[in-house]
Design a protein that fits this description.
Length: 398
């Protein structure tokens, strides 16, 4: 039985099985997620992570163009060892105080609760940071509204990046933390200023999975207004999967991968970024996205800057209603960009897949920026295993 790595709905029609063949089949769907397939009895499916695991066209195994049965696989879940919050929280402890009690590296099980904290007074302007807290799972985290004491300072900032961050995982200072984990909901609240969500800071083999980041506020697609619901900073081999980052019109850019090496993002959705891109990569290496959706993002679905002479791979991703599908810019060496089996607006009516490579680029900005050194010839589009760069890819400069 071959696994169906990706299904796509176009006008209610299942149009791709894996990356090699087309099997039409009308399906019921909601918000682009396969909820049910009852096209002909027998066959009912329940939603899990939206990945179609098996499809049988009819009892005889004959392709008559109708989907008879489908099953969705269960979400991938890392094997972790977590410690219930209630096992170390003492009577009278605030959430912040309770997190000071573990003496060894601990992933905290929130036990299905919502935990509230106040202000950005820990670590380096962090809401929550303790050296031995390396993760959270099974619950919701949020800052109590209007408890930040940093509004005046942040709102007066005109250069640099905004440091204020809700949750920091990783000790930093040149010391890498192994095995950081985040599997909780992070909810943005009003603080009178913009801020970041989660920072994975000097980590190796960190995992962010099966969680949501909602309405983390930003103001621009460039610093200091560019903040990130997820900031993967100076980390190696970070995996992000089954994640929803919904800016709800308030966020800048969904993920900022900054000077990170070995990035794998799977089965995740980045949407409604009101000021920036769904995801952005800056000075990173070895970047892969698989089966991700980028929709309703202001500047681009995916933005790549100064990722010099590296590999950028996009597999089975959907791009809908973004400022650009992708932007690839550098003032260094050109990267090799390979895009496999994307879904994009207008693809069935002859609209090419467009990638923006600006004519000039420099960061930090300069008065007369040099020519962009990303080579359009290093960007390739493949559909069904066939290189269709010459006929279906268009590189633009704006």
């Amino acid at each position: 039985m071959s696994r169906l790595q990706r299904w796509d709905l176009i006008n209610g029609v299942l149009t791709r099985r894996g990356h090699t063949s087309i099997i039409p089949g009308v399906v019921q769907h909601s918000a682009g997620i396969l909820r049910r397939a009852e096209l002909s009895a027998p066959g009912v499916v329940a939603a899990a992570d939206g990945i179609l695991y098996r499809a049988e066209l009819n009892a005889a195994g004959i392709n008559d163009g109708r989907l008879y049965r489908a099953e969705l696989d269960t979400p991938v879940q890392a094997t972790i060892t977590s410690v219930p919050l209630s096992s170390f929280r003492q009577s009278g402890d605030t959430f912040e105080v309770a997190l000071t009690r573990p003496a060894t590296d601990t992933i905290v099980d929130l036990e299905g609760t919502t935990q509230v904290f106040a202000d950005f007074n820990e670590g380096y302007y962090d809401g929550i940071y303790q050296p031995h807290i390396i993760g959270f799972t099974n619950g919701t985290l949020e800052m109590s509204p209007n408890t930040s004491s940093y509004a005046s300072a942040v709102n007066a900032q005109t250069t640099g990046t905004v440091a204020e961050t809700l949750i920091r995982l990783g000790r930093g200072g040149g010391t890498y933390t192994n095995g950081a984990y985040f599997g909780a909901t992070l909810q943005g609240t009003a603080q009178g200023h913009i801020y970041n969500g989660l920072v994975v800071y000097y980590c190796t083999n960190a995992i962010v999975e099966n969680c949501s980041f909602l309405a983390i506020p930003g103001a621009s697609s460039a610093p200091p207004g560019e903040t990130f619901p997820i900031n993967n900073y100076l980390s190696n081999n970070t995996t992000i999967r089954n994640v929803l980052v919904d800016g709800q019109g308030a966020s800048a850019t969904g993920i900022g991968h900054n000077q990170a090496n070995g990035i794998l993002v799977q089965n995740s959705t980045f949407q409604n970024m009101g000021h920036g891109a769904g995801v952005s990569q800056y000075e990173c290496t070895n970047i892969t996205y698989e089966n991700c959706t980028f929709q309703n993002n202001h500047s681009a679905g995916a933005n790549f800057e100064k990722n010099n002479a590296t590999s950028i791979t996009m597999v089975g991703c959907t791009f809908h209603n973004n400022g650009h599908n992708m932007i690839v810019d550098t003032d260094g060496s050109s990267s090799i960009v390979k895009i496999y089996d994307p879904i994009w607006d207008g693809m069935n009516s002859g609209v090419p897949f467009k990638v923006c490579v600006h004519s000039t680029y420099a960061y930090p900005p300069v008065a007369n920026p040099p020519a962009n050194k990303q080579l359009p010839s290093d960007i390739h589009l493949y559909i069904g295993g066939v290189d269709v760069t010459a006929t279906k890819l268009q590189v633009t400069t704006n």
